[in-house]
Design goal:
Layout (H helix, E strand, L loop, with lengths): L1 H12 L29 H11 L9 H14 L4 H4 L7 E2 L6 E5 L31 E5 L1 H14 L20 H6 L1 H5 L14 H13 L4 H8 L3 H8 L6 H14 L3
Antiparallel strand pairs: 1-2, 2-3
Helix pairs in contact: 2-3, 3-5, 3-8
Length: about 260
């Protein structure tokens, strides 16, 4: 896809007279689109993982404790990493009781200083699969609200009122690559060896969406909260819907019994 788009752009610029790939045919290798059920953690395992994250680094710098809110946002809110680091306090409703919410209107992908217009590590972009200026409201369970309130009370907010911030005097937003690299190091505390539970922090988002679907939440609502289409949601998480086979077996048995 990248090569084809590059060729089309070259044609637009007049660097190529015609598409040199037009007469070439090849078969695209099929890739696995579905989430591996083995990486999905249950609520108990997720809490153990968050506890393990809090022990990363020394207590004084609180590197691990600052990361708890980041990973908790992926699990309890189903957030993408680039969305979690973009959370600002004015966009949040964090009540002392009950559910809260956050309104997303931007993401903060980490692409490096050389590749951003601002010269900073994090670029400022819109939401995935949304038109410029689009927003998305995500409800937050009380467990996540409590963790974010605790983070703000303990560490304050960072630049631009960021709820989640890294350690240091500059209090900038988390650098995603180092943060995500710590996932496998903490995973050993959360699950039995040999099973790739939450092998990547992004698997926490997969776990969140799988949990919501298994709880019986309407797929349209899950897709809206996650910022996905229903088609993508059901395609990727079909194998993570536990208990559906047993329900189907009961319905088939009931139908066959009617004809006995």
């Amino acid at each position: 896809m990248t090569l084809v788009n590059a060729v089309r752009y070259a044609i637009e610029l007049g660097q190529l007279r015609a598409d040199p790939l037009a007469n070439i045919s090849w078969r695209i290798t099929e890739t696995v689109q579905q989430v591996d059920p083995r990486v999905v953690v249950n609520p108990v395992q997720a809490r153990n993982l968050l506890c393990a994250v809090s022990y990363v680094g020394g207590y004084g710098r609180a590197r691990g404790r600052r990361l708890v809110g980041l990973f908790a946002g992926m699990y309890y809110g189903g957030l993408r990493p680039v969305e979690a680091v973009a959370v600002t306090l004015p966009d949040c409703e964090l009540p002392t009781e009950g559910w809260g919410s956050v309104i997303f209107h931007a993401t903060r992908p980490s692409v490096g200083k050389k590749w951003t217009d601002s010269g900073r590590n994090h670029d400022l972009r819109g939401l995935k699969s949304r038109p410029p200026g689009g927003t998305r409201t995500v409800p937050l369970p009380h467990e996540l609200v409590s963790l974010w309130r605790e983070s703000v009370d303990t560490f304050g907010t960072g630049r631009r009122s960021a709820v989640l911030q890294r350690e240091g005097r500059h209090r900038g937003i988390h650098h995603l690559r180092p943060c995500l690299a710590r996932g496998p190091r903490t995973r050993a505390f959360a699950g039995p060896g040999g099973i790739p539970l939450a092998a990547r922090p992004y698997d926490l988002r997969h776990s969140a969406l799988s949990t919501w679907l298994n709880a019986g939440v309407d797929p349209t609502e899950v897709a809206e909260r996650a910022g996905n289409s229903v088609e993508v949601l059901m395609t990727r998480y079909a194998k993570c819907l536990y208990g559906r086979q047993a329900l189907a077996d009961k319905r088939i048995d009931a139908l066959l019994d009617e004809y006995n």
